[in-house]
Design goal:
Elements (H helix, E strand, L loop, with lengths): L5 E7 H10 L2 E4 L9 H12 L7 E5 L8 E2 L14 E5 L1 H11 L5 E4 L5 E9 H5 L9 E5 L3 E3 L5 E4 L3 H7 L1 E3 L7 H10 L4 H20 L1 E7 L5 H11 L8 H10 L5 H9 L16 H22 L14 H5 L3 H24 L14 H11 L6 H16 L8 H16 L6 H5 L16 H12 L11 H7 L4 E4 L3 H6 L4 H4 L5 E4 L1 H7 L4 H12 L3 H9 L5 H5 L3 H20 L8 H7 L1
Parallel strand pairs: 2-5, 3-12
Antiparallel strand pairs: 1-12, 2-4, 3-5, 6-7, 7-8, 7-11, 9-10, 13-14
Helix pairs in contact: 5-6, 11-13, 11-14, 13-14, 14-16, 15-16, 23-24, 26-27
């Protein structure tokens, strides 16, 4: 945005409120509702009455290429179909508060300090204003809708329900502050033009009333050619104390200008398509995630069209899904690619089931779903062959065990889509994600909680290896689907390891953990493996050999457990896990026993 893209000047408050009233100034649809409690409004009124600054208003000139659905400021009722000249980006709370309290002419619908809805009128205590001792905020009162003050028993303590009672109490209703002459005339009539009262009014008029009429507010005006991205950035910069404006909200307002309800489409068309139990892995996919996948396809299409059109490489539009890219998404592009992305996410859920990732608790990277859905959407049937699925799985596990999706990921997404689709179709070599992914053997020793993607990845690989419950022999994937109590537990129990003086950095690592049901884990308890293996066989009413077979399905060596040989067990399982990781990544991973052999012993 250049220096010429905006202007700064001062405008009379009176004129700004007129624009609010007749609809020349309205709000973009993405602006949130008015929420100020009445003490905040009192402070605002007090500041204006003293000529103090209350901040700037920022507006966007209407009529540019970027169109937003709009609505009147709360309380204003311009004629239906009124098109605004400007949209208020910053200053909504102040303009709404001032409009409702001094120009609307009906009770202000606001909140009390407990955020309970209340309705009432603002008054100025004329004597308190002029006594020179009362703080201006204390001189402004908020009275109930019926203008009667009651105690907790409902008994009327003060009654200002008629103009005569206002005159007698010297309470000036702020709804008249911009046009006070009728109230002034009634006040003078009530006091029979008493000279002292006339002088009192003149002092109050000069000290309080005229301050509103003369008040000017700084207004920053953005030109109608301001880009959508700039509007979003400006809005967030000036609303640092509130909730950030999301791309989804801004696009909702933009698409609404063309009568497309993005919010409804997200809820009723997109999310509804994933309600079946087999898509539960998608429950945490956000509207922004979805938009990123759509944007990847849209920018890829622009890129391909430019290539076909002979655009030089240095001028080709980029493939991406950063904030700027999403804000440039057109409604036509959204309607074209959104259905494909819905199917892409459904395909991603199916793919993840094939990789034994069933539950969001054990989903290594939610962010990796974004390029995965886009890849499946663009590749279509090309991604369904066995060879394509093997390539897709290798890319996926390289991302997981290379731990490549934990930070800023948009650039990786922009590489993944063309790289993986080209790889699947045989038009390009290994994706950059596959090439750069590395897994150090020592990383297994530092995986201790579900906070890391690689930890969750190991869990999935154990399920993929056919891990069975040690007691029942049921596949852990089946048990986990029907029994929420399955979790990762120690193989050599923590209490036993502690008593034996084993290194906690080793026995608390994923090498010494595996998915077990809560009941099986209770049988294990804190006992030595040699003891609990006997208990498991007895509880399962089966042979020790059968239990050992179940244990081997977890890539664990029961012969070392039977002799409570933690060092031998640890070395064998670490090697087995590394073998599985290497196989999924398609990489050679050299183990180094020296780094932990002494500690394991």
């Amino acid at each position: 945005m250049t220096d010429e893209a905006f202007s700064i000047d001062k405008r009379p408050l009176r004129d700004l409120l007129r624009q609010v009233e007749d609809g020349r100034a309205q709000l973009p649809e993405f602006q949130r509702g008015w929420v100020w409690p009445h003490p905040n409004i009192t402070a605002l009124l007090a500041s204006v009455s003293q000529g103090f600054p209350v901040g700037t208003v920022m507006t966007l000139q209407s009529g540019g290429d970027v169109r937003f659905k709009h609505r009147p400021i709360e309380g204003a009722t311009p004629p239906p179909g009124t098109e605004p000249e400007t949209l208020v980006l910053d200053g909504q709370q102040r303009l709404t508060s001032l409009f409702q309290s001094i120009r609307l002419g009906r009770p202000v619908e606001t909140q009390d300090v407990r955020k309970q809805r209340v309705s009432g009128w603002f008054y100025a205590d004329m004597r308190a204003v002029l006594d020179g001792q009362t703080d201006r905020e204390d001189a402004i009162r908020f009275l109930p809708k019926d203008r009667m003050v009651r105690n907790f028993r409902g008994e009327v303590l003060e009654d200002y329900s008629t103009p005569e009672k206002e005159y007698e109490a010297h309470l000036f209703p702020l709804r008249y502050v911009m046009n006070p002459r009728d109230w002034e005339s009634g006040y003078q009539d009530f006091w029979d033009f008493d000279k002292e009262k006339l002088r009192f009014w003149r002092d109050f008029d000069e000290e309080f009333v005229r301050r509103f009429d003369r008040y000017q507010m700084p207004v920053i005006s953005l030109g109608k050619n301001t880009a959508r991205q700039a509007v979003c950035q400006v809005f967030e910069n000036v609303n640092t104390g509130g909730v950030s404006l999301t791309v989804f909200e801004l696009l909702t307002a933009t698409f609404a200008a063309d009568e497309f309800d993005l919010r409804r489409h997200w809820k009723e068309e997109v999310k509804a398509a994933w309600e079946a139990p087999e898509y539960r892995i998608l429950k945490d996919v956000s509207n922004t995630d979805f938009l990123q996948s759509v944007t990847l396809l849209a920018t890829a299409a622009r890129h391909e069209e430019a290539v076909t059109g002979g655009v030089p490489e240095e001028r080709l539009p980029r493939i991406g899904c950063k904030r700027k890219d999403m804000l440039e998404l057109s409604l036509d592009e959204y309607e074209r690619f959104a259905p494909l992305v819905v199917q892409g996410f459904k395909g991603a859920a199916k793919f993840l089931r094939q990789q034994y990732v069933f539950d969001t608790r054990f989903l290594p990277y939610g962010t990796q779903l974004i390029p995965l859905a886009a890849i499946l959407a663009q590749a279509g049937q090309d991604a369904q062959s066995a060879g394509a699925q093997a390539k897709l799985a290798r890319w996926y596990w390289c991302g997981v065990f290379g731990e490549l999706y934990g930070g800023s990921t948009e650039t990786r997404f922009s590489h993944d889509l063309p790289d993986v689709v080209g790889w699947i179709r045989g038009t390009s070599g290994e994706p950059r994600t596959v090439e750069t992914a590395q897994f150090a053997p020592g990383r297994l020793l530092t995986l201790r909680t579900r906070n890391s993607a690689a930890y969750k990845g190991i869990y999935a690989l154990l399920l993929k290896a056919g891990a069975m419950d040690w007691r029942t022999g049921e596949k852990a994937e089946i048990t986990g689907y029907f029994d929420e109590s399955i979790d990762i537990h120690h193989i050599f129990p923590k209490a036993w390891c502690h008593a034996e003086g084993k290194d906690p950095d080793l026995y608390n690592s994923i090498v010494n953990k595996t998915p077990l049901t809560a009941r099986t884990n209770r049988i294990i308890g804190g006992n030595a493996p040699s003891d609990y293996l006997v208990k498991l066989a007895k509880s399962a009413e089966t042979t020790a050999e059968q239990v050992q077979s179940h244990i081997r399905s977890h890539l664990a060596a029961p012969e070392h457990m039977a002799t409570d040989d933690f060092p031998a067990f640890f070395a064998a399982r670490k090697a087995a896990l590394l073998g599985r990781v290497a196989a999924e990544m398609g990489k050679n991973i050299a183990d180094d026993l020296v780094e932990y052999a002494d500690a394991a012993g």
